[in-house]
Amino acid sequence: MTDDYLTRIGNLIRDARKHRGLTQAELAQLLKTSQSAVNRIEQGQQNLSLEMLARVGAALDSEFVALGTSGPSHLRVVGETKLSGAIDVKSSKNAGVALLCAALLNEGRTTLRKVARIEEVNRLLEVLESIGFKTTWIGDEGDLELVPPATLDLSGIDEEAARRTRSIIMFLGPLMHREQSFDLPYAGGCDLGTRTVEPHMTALRPFGLEVKATEGSYHAIVDPSVAPTRPIVLTERGDTVTENALLAAARHEGTTVIRNASPNYMVQDLCFFLEKLGVQIEGIGTTTLRVTGRSRIDVDVEYAPSEDPIEAMSLITAAIVTESNITVRRVPIEFMEIELALLEEMGFTYDRSDEYLAENGETRLVDITTYPSVLHAPIDKIHPMPFPGLNIDNLPFFAVIAANASGTTLLHDWVYENRAIYLTELNKLGANVKLLDPHRVLIEGPTRWRATELVCPPALRPAVVILIAMLAAKGTSVLRSVYVINRGYEDLATRLNALGADIETFRDI
Fold it and tell me: Which of 9, 52, 175, 248 sees the fewest Cβ atoms within 10 Å?
């Protein structure tokens, strides 16, 4: 039993390491140990202390074990569940994160309404507080007040918190207007030459920013004499890349044209917020943005980020897989239309209310009422596309939906390396998911779900997909180490329980 347990932990660590893009040697360097020791750990041939597990978890941003902290680590799920009732979609996690970074632009007071209280937000708040911000939660609905210091104290930055959020890279755009040189911690495994980081450099160099990777940090130097002389063409239509370019352009006194920009939901929310700061933006919702910035921004501003289309998809998926009749309120329909059209093609039946506006006065919302449906596989493969196509973060939900449908479905996740691998964990719950290569899975349905115990994969959306399958599986399932879910969802288990789910949070003694 001990050997089996060590093997399971080793497999989990290996998967988390690969997801972070680290080699065994790079992980060994972060842990201050040898590559051979990391190899033994991943092979299940190394006894592990709680301290070492905690260090591995911090290095890989996966909470295998938490020391001296409170709160749930695991979920116990009793299925088969029938959900009922109504639930509101919470505000966008990705928009909230971008707006916290955008608060660095403002010398005045920033108040954000109904911010998701998730671990990703908590980490960014810890970083902001460490450099001098005063952050205050107001009331019971998640309103958040941010008051900047007269001078930022970047020497006091909370490096541990910074390394636990990939969003820290979006500090580059705002900070380059406040400091001519600064160091910014980054999570282990990031490399300026990799696909995930280099597009940011392409977007920010025209503003005079140069960044060198030092030991565990970005060392940034700003040349204030440099300004964009022609349109900035993003080499990747990424959401955070577009946001970083917007944050840099917002404090550039002049007009910046950004081409191949992402028009996705969190980018639009950031644009609406920047407009409240006095920044002029043309082309919101398109791939070409024309931004006229201000050299100084000092305003007291309030803004309510719109609702999260990925959470909306999560809730609708839970209803589909459990064959339940629920109403999901405040769905941002503009960012769900392709998903719903595809679900209709597969046989999903639902009602949709008339449209109404979100609190930001811009985003269109509807209420969706789901009905138990007999699903069949789609004619064509399911694959993501940049907005207005099917959202990459919504693709994993179609794995568990396809497992409920009759026939064979091909999912092609061309964006992320290896994320499709985590979808094969559904096989342990009774599904028939065949991995064709690191980007494609073939799913045969329908599935007779069965309960099991699993360790949460380190990828957020596949983790929630497994939780949803457990709702439909007869018997009691256990999903262990759910920190990754708490990074992206606020009180998900509690809110599903309000619809009739039976999910218990617990920690091992």
Answer: 52
| DSSP code for 308 | -
Copy the structure tokens of residue 263.
């028009």
- CA torsion 15→20→22→28, rounded to 10°? -80
pLDDT in tens, 444-479: 999 999 999 999 988 889 999 999 999 999 999 999
For residue 346, is it left (φ>0), alpha (ψ between -120 and 50) or beta?
A: alpha
Q: What is the DSSP string of 347-395?
A: T-EEEEPPPEE-TTSSSEEEEEEEE----B--SS-B---STTS--GGGT
**DSSP reduced 3-state for 337:** helix
Residue 1 has a pLDDT of: 41
Say if residue 153 is exposed, middle or buried (CB neighbours under 10 Å; 0-12, 13-18, 19+): exposed
Q: Nearest CA to 451 among 427, 480, 475?
A: 475
Residues 299/264, Cβ–Cβ less than 8 Å: no
CB-based contacts of 176: which residues, under 8 Å, 6+ apart? 204, 207, 208, 209, 220, 222, 248
User: What is the rounded CA–CA span in Å between residue 187 and residue 58?
Assistant: 10
pTM over 0.70: yes
User: Mapping DSSP to helix (H, G, I), strand (E, B) and coil, where does residue 345 land?
Assistant: helix
Q: Residues, the chain, total?
A: 509
Distances (CA, A) of 226 to 207, 249, 325: 6, 13, 57
Inter-axis angle of helices 337-345 and 309-321, nearest 10: 20
**SS in 3 state form for 162-176?**
HHCCHHHHHHHHHHC
Q: Distance between CA atoms of 115 and 105, rounded to whole angstroms? A: 19
Task: Kindly give, in sequence order, each residue whose CB lies less than 8 Å from that of residue 384, ignoring residues fewer than 6 positions away.
Answer: 390, 391, 392, 394, 395, 413, 414, 415
Is 193 a residue whose pLDDT tops 60? Answer: no
Residue of 177, 184, 170 lying closest to 214 (CA atoms): 184
Phi, psi (rounded to 5 degrees) for 254: 165, -175
Question: In 3D, which of 432, 429, 424 has the Cα closest to residue 449?
Answer: 429
Q: Is the separation of the CB atoms in 339 and 350 below 8 Å? A: no
Q: Given pLDDT bands bounded at 50, 70 and 90, which one contains residue 66?
A: very low
Exposed, middle or buried: residue 437 (CB in 10 Å: 0-12, 13-18, 19+)? exposed
How far apart are alpha carbons 360 and 304 in whole angstroms? Answer: 5
What number is the average pLDDT over the span 375-399? Answer: 95
Whole-angstrom distance, CA of residue 41 vs CA of residue 39: 5
Residue 184's Cβ-side half-sphere holds a number of Cα atoms within 13 Å equal to 26
- Could you tell me which of 387, 295, 286, 384 has the C-alpha nearest to residue 342? 384
498 φ/ψ angles, rounded to the nearest 5 degrees: -65, -20
CB-neighbour burial class of residue 113 (10 A; exposed 0-12, middle 13-18, buried 19+): middle
Read off the tokens for 441: 């899975």
How much helix, strand and coil, in percent to the nearest 5, is found in the chain? 40, 25, 40
